[in-house]
Structure to design on (164 residues):
């Protein structure tokens, strides 16, 4: 199951050494399992972020007596070719045959990040159009509540005399 998972799955021991690397991890990071197993997990982390990896491995090592450690984090991974890959990773600690391991299920979120950037650009563009208009623009929600006005609108809209 883990070899055919659609997410990368990697495991480390308490020293931070990679002990499992599935096919999706090979595809995602560009290393074969034979190349990377036995190496430190920090090889998959960008230089400036390795302190966080050392901290996570230290927590992992300290947690081995009590067991389960879980967290979900977004970050960047370092691929063999030097490129950075936006990822989301879930970490789980557990005992297996007397050894404490931490396994990460890693998802490539580069497409989601691209959509987020596109959405932000579209929002910035529409904000620019609304604010640069010489016309008054008032945007209301489905119930008629005003949710936004451009900078021209307040000068053109005034309360009716009967509203007080």
């Amino acid at each position: 199951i883990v070899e055919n998972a659609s997410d990368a799955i990697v495991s480390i021991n308490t020293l931070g050494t990679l002990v499992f690397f599935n096919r999706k991890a090979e595809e995602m990071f560009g290393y074969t399992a034979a190349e990377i197993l036995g190496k430190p997990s920090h090889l998959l982390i960008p230089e400036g972020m390795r302190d966080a990896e050392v901290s996570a491995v230290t927590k992992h090592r300290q947690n081995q007596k009590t067991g389960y450690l879980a967290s979900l984090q977004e970050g960047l991974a370092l691929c063999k070719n030097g490129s950075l890959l936006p990822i989301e990773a879930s970490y789980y600690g557990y005992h297996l045959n007397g050894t404490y391991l931490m396994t990460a299920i890693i998802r490539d979120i580069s497409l989601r990040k691209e959509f987020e950037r596109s959405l932000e650009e579209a929002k910035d563009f529409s904000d620019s159009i609304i604010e640069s208009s010489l016309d008054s623009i008032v945007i209301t929600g489905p119930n008629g509540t005003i949710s936004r006005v451009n900078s021209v609108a307040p000068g053109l809209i005034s309360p009716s005399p009967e509203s007080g």
In short: The mean pLDDT is 86. The first helix runs from residue 23 to 29.
